[in-house]
Amino acid sequence: MGGKKKAAKEKPLDKMTAKELREVAKGIQGINGVHSMSKVELLSDIKEARGIVDDGPKKDTGVIRALKQKIGALKTARSTAIEAKDKDQMTILRRKISKLKKKTRRAA
Length: 108
Description:
Blueprint: H1 18-26, H2 39-50, H3 61-84, H4 87-107
């Protein structure tokens, strides 16, 4: 009665850690040298063995890159505000940086 059942739904392969991917790969025949593989190699071999077609990256790196450039500019402005000891400006810039970081995480 007290045993836990294995989850009916498996975690998506892209979200698994390398350790979890190694465990999955051990159960698949035809994949050798699991412990010497990187996460990317493990993912591609497991997907190939399961017949999953990899569509490639889904994120738009141009948007993320532009946001990170804005963050860099705001950080330099914040450092000048720190040197000038302008607390109001520091707070404003810190909040703008925080909002942009959240946008990059959503875009990724």
